[in-house]
Design a protein that fits this description.
Distance between the termini: 62 Å
Number of domains: 2
Radius of gyration: 18 Å
Shape: globular
Helix content: 40-55%
Structural class: alpha/beta
Largest sheet: 7 strands, parallel
Number of helices: 12
Number of strands: 7
Length: 270
């Protein structure tokens, strides 16, 4: 008997909670089969991108969805560009967007043959609109699929505002926090929408390259996919530096050495 979609989603969540665990790099080569695998990262850690490349090669996906690309940018990718790292970087305007060194990301683009490339970014100006207009208004009719029209419960809203404050070194004016939460909800939904498009176009599997925040199973891309397309099987993998949080909201996670960097809070202090 075919289970209702809602029951399938509930079963998947219970299974995820039961199997969530820390893994090592070798386990990236043997991740469970899934329609969608979300590979998190700390953006400027080259080890994380090397691990994403290993996992992508092992999964052999039909499509890649990048947080770092808009749909228009992803459509620029051609087989000829994929064969030329420098030309691909120029075509994507990578360095102008402020992402870490393209040399770390390029192997992911070429990790599987005949990959279709999709972008889940909406562009900075569009994301900023969500801070004043709300995520649902900016994403449009598809926002309802991801629950954007429903206000978050008060306690969840408060926690997400606190998370935004902590992520910005406790330096944000409090009046900006609700808008920051809306911007994050918009970005999660836009990524989830791109994943669904990639899956419907190719049949999967689909690999998603994104920051850890968008890989959270409780509130980010996996949660929105469970709401919009509950029959999809989704696996989320996070990568942390030095140690993992006490309650990581992911199916699997790795802990790697930290990459040397200036304290990011220095920018706020200056």
């Amino acid at each position: 008997m075919i289970r209702p979609a809602a029951l399938l989603a509930a079963v998947a969540l219970v299974a995820s909670a039961a199997t969530a665990r820390e893994i090592d790099t070798a386990a990236l080569l043997e991740l469970p089969v899934a329609d969608v695998v979300v590979l998190g990262e700390v953006h400027d850690n080259p080890l994380h991108h090397a691990n994403q490349t290993l996992a992508t090669r092992a999964i052999a996906p039909k499509a890649l969805v990048f947080e770092m690309l808009t749909d228009a940018e992803a459509r620029r990718v051609t087989p000829a560009l994929l064969a030329d790292e420098a030309a691909l970087e120029r075509a994507l305007g990578w360095s102008a967007k402020g992402w870490p060194d393209f040399v770390w990301y390029y192997p992911i683009f070429t990790a599987a043959p005949a990959l279709a490339i999709y972008g889940g970014d909406l562009g900075r100006d569009t994301v900023r609109r969500a801070m004043t207009e709300g995520a649902a208004a900016v994403l449009g009719p598809s926002g309802a699929l991801f629950g954007l029209e429903t206000p978050l419960p008060r306690d969840v809203q408060a926690q997400r505002e606190a998370d935004q404050m902590a992520a910005h070194c406790d330096a944000l004016p409090e009046e900006l926090l609700p808008g920051m939460v809306e911007a994050q909800r918009l970005r999660d939904a836009a990524l989830a929408r791109a994943v669904i498009a990639a899956y419907l176009d190719t049949g999967g599997p689909v690999v998603v390259i994104t920051g850890n925040g968008h890989a959270r199973t409780d509130q980010a891309v996996p949660a929105m996919l469970a709401k919009a397309m509950p029959d999809l099987s989704v696996t989320s993998v996070a990568q942390f530096e030095t140690s993992a949080p006490d309650d990581p909201a992911f199916d699997y996670w790795l802990v790697t050495p930290a990459t040397p960097r200036e304290d990011p809070c220095n920018a706020f202090r200056r």
